[in-house]
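Incident review: delayed structure delivery

Summary: a single-chain prediction request sat in the queue longer than the usual turnaround. Root cause was a stuck worker, restarted by the on-call engineer. No data loss occurred. The affected request and its eventual output are reproduced below so the record is complete for anyone auditing the incident later.

Affected input:
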Amino acid sequence: MRAVLRVRGVDKSFDAKVLDGVDLDVHGGEIVVLLGRSGSGKTTLLTIVTDFDRPDAGTVEHVNGTGWRDLAVLPQSLGLLPELTVAENVALPLRLDRADEDVRPLLERLGLAHLAGRYPSETSLGEQQRTALARAVVVRPTLLVADEPVSHQNRAWAEAMMALVRERADAGTACLLATHDEVAVGAADRVVELHDGRLRAH
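Output delivered after worker restart:
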């Protein structure tokens, strides 16, 4: 399938160079896992890919733009709106996209149905992370970018979450995940690693 995300020659420095000429394509239907030790630049690359930061050099192209249906982001901070319930957080992209879809099957699948009317602060960190994933994939985005998406899950829930990501990929979503979780790595079509600012096949 065609490349949905194209990264070319991306450099980024803070006190030292973090990214050094990074090139990366992610295709529709593909799960790419990004590895790298702490401080290697994984989160920096994701923030540049999602336009939350700018590279010092190089280009990033999202083939389909940056709307909710084009680009879905699951940050480490999760980014849930505290004034919305679990169900309202998950349904937010649908509402912004003016789409009419029942989120209950997705909530049930991720063990959140009984929490639908609660606020994020009234749920566990693992439940909040599953809520954030549900919100990210509810509109079946063209590109999903996720930073440590299953870090607060036991193995069973990590497998359930990655099965959902796999379904979205099989339907055409391009998925870029920064994670060391063995379940996520095992579900990947391709694994790449950041080392000394450069990207290489793992």
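Verification: The mean pLDDT is 93.
Action items: add queue-age alerting; document worker restart procedure.
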